[in-house]
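Long-time lurker, first post.

We've been arguing in lab meeting about whether pyridoxal-5'-phosphate would sit comfortably in this protein at all. Half the group thinks yes, half thinks no, and nobody has a model to point at. So I'm putting the question to the forum: if I give you the sequence and the SMILES, can you give me back a predicted structure of the complex? Inputs are below. Any interpretation is welcome too.
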Amino acid sequence: MRKELSKIWLSSPHMGGTEQNFVRQAFETNWIAPLGPNVEGFESDIATFLNTNPPPFVAALSSGTAALHLALILAEVEAGDEVLCQSMTFSASANPICYLQAKPIFIDSETFTWNLDPDLLEEAILHRMSLGKKPKALVAVHLYGMPFQAERIVEICKKYQIVLIEDSAEALGSSYKGKRCGTLGDLAVLSFNGNKIITTSGGGALVTYNKEWRDRSVYLSTQARDPAPHYQHSQIGYNYRMSNVCAGIGRGQMEVLNSHIERRRAMHQFYKKVFAAIDEVEVYENTHPDYFSNYWLSCILLNPSTKFDAKELRLWLEKYQIECRPLWKPMHLQPVFADCPFYGDKVSETLFNNGLCLPSGSNLTDADRERIANAIKTYFKK
Ligand SMILES: *Cc1c(COP(=O)(O)O)cnc(C)c1O
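Top reply:
Settle the argument with this. Predicted structure of the protein with pyridoxal-5'-phosphate, as tokens:
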């Protein structure tokens, strides 16, 4: 009888071991609520990790998507406004723009970081202004952990007074010119969903150097209660605060974040070795010294003019119980955003057609790596 192979996941939760102590403490002290010592402790751990002087202000929230929604509200995005957004990303970068009845304007990537192309960004801003409307904000993404071209993008946003929202959901631990992702924009968003580099089972955070914004995000995330003994509201609020139980998981995860970053980066090195002798494949990387990626996911590109094909490789690996995924399908190609303007050409579309994300978890074992390497090698021997 054939032994069932266990599944190798793309990116699965990886507990460090101390998470349950923090969760137990929450139970023992009965802080089973969307506030408490773990929430404050987790926020302070993140602020410390981001490593700036002065440290940023952090609000722990129920998801990265919630953090983006609040970031857009703080940027004063309202119905009818336009918001610029990287097209090649997960839909959660763009959806909150629509929650506010604002309109996403999508921008293509460049091939150096796979992120927002600064030239197209400026072109889009100038064109929208010529049509009579200056975009209110920009959602720029550090895709798969690779920092975007921060210096130029920050400069363009300053020049046109556009609020820069940094979607750093995939890039905790990455940095640009020694500054950690999450500290580069006016507002930044982190995610602790189950597949991210650390997880709270579900959660996110908003990061900013503006204390008023931080306080307002907490106020809005806890139903916008005015300071009064009764329940009084002068604004629409949300139930977006992180629970003290989840924050306990987060505090434990912060203790292993550095080791997770090392292990994810080691997975990238592993794929470099596996594909070194396979000419048809390029492992995505950026070796420029300004860019430090946590390599949240390791990605490859297949040369389209060969007999090998990304979809075929993915299905091949699935047969070996190895989970892979196509790259993010750009937003301008999504049915739900078909009516939104797009600035660019075929860069992100070409990446999408030829790319693949490979198993990248910090919990993968030598045996897993051997299985992956063998399955890949047999495919390219065909
Ligand atoms: C995961 C992710 C989000 C959303 O975070 P959630 O915590 O899942 O809501 C946003 N943007 C990007 C790029 C992501 O990968």
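For your lab meeting: The CA atoms of residues 242 and 277 lie 46 Å apart. The first strand starts at residue 57 and ends at 61. Whichever side wins, do check it experimentally.
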